[in-house]
Amino acid sequence: MLSNKIFLITGIADNHSLAMYTAKEIIKQGGKVICTGLGVSEHHKGLSEKAKIFLTKNFEDFKNAVSEEIEEAQVEILDVTIDENIESFARNLSQRNIKLDGMLHAIAMDKTIRNKEVKPLIDVTKDEFCDTMDVSAYSLIRLIHYLLKHNVLERGSSICSLSYIAAEKVTFHPYRNISIAKAALERISVELADELGRSHDIRVNVIRFSPFMGSKAGNATLNIEDVNTSDKMSPLGNAKPMDLAHEVVHLFRPNLRITGEIRHVDGGYHITG
Ligand SMILES: NC(=O)c1ccc[n+]([C@@H]2O[C@H](COP(=O)([O-])OP(=O)(O)OC[C@H]3O[C@@H](n4cnc5c(N)ncnc54)[C@H](O)[C@@H]3O)[C@@H](O)[C@H]2O)c1
What we know:
Elements: E1 6-9, H1 18-28, E2 32-37, H2 49-69, E3 74-77, H3 83-95, E4 100-105, E5 113-114, E6 117-118, H4 126-149, E7 153-163, H5 177-200, E8 203-209, H6 216-221, H7 224-233, H8 241-252, E9 262-265
Parallel strand pairs: 1-2, 1-4, 2-3, 4-7, 7-8, 8-9
Antiparallel strand pairs: 5-6
Helix pairs in contact: 1-8, 3-4, 4-5
Bound molecules: nicotinamide-adenine-dinucleotide.
């Protein structure tokens, strides 16, 4: 289904990242992947020792997970908060004559959730708000901007990002700050679907997925009670990472006329009250 197609997979932290399931499914369907992970790039300036250690370990874990799970995958460092890093990444792909047929945006960060404790929105600082927005939403615009600028995204490419129901509704788990960034991510996707559909035949869709504790971000954010509650509320129970991978791969199929969708892969949780 995806033979001779190359996809950019962002957001792999380790073997349990949602993006990893999609990357493996793309390979199974005959496609290729380029995976990006957060690490220390030449564009990082004035990093503290602590930040350097964190980023270096993050990149090592990412690289090891990719080499364990995917044969011959290319790995690259990418910090979406640094424009120069995104641009040099895109330029490098262009210099190597690589053309992408799509991208999975699976990146999110919110420092107002710590040890599963959620800071009330009323106490969120401007920096905390803007950092979450930058990493989790605006990064979609910047990534596509530089991929197009360096002529790396093919006409007819498909872009997909990951969200959840809290972008629209207050849920039993009070996500607060990150919910706002997810709402922005969804709106950005819809606007880009219109702009890029008309200009480049590029499709842009978002998938709202069930709570999943297996990943680093999920484990840092969710309680088992939350996951059990949504499992009970969902007519089909919580969706699994493979359900998500299948849906992303479906949206990555060439020549589909599906764009601007906010889809639910959540076992039907969104229809419940
Ligand atoms: N786990 C869930 O319950 C769940 C549910 C619905 C949607 N999602 C979304 O799925 C996506 C992937 O999350 P996951 O659950 O697989 O967790 P994860 O921790 O495996 O992935 C999050 C990724 O974001 C990356 N990231 C953070 N800051 C970055 C930066 N500045 N530059 C580049 N990358 C950066 C991290 O390195 C990590 O790879 C996120 O957008 C998340 O909000 C998760």
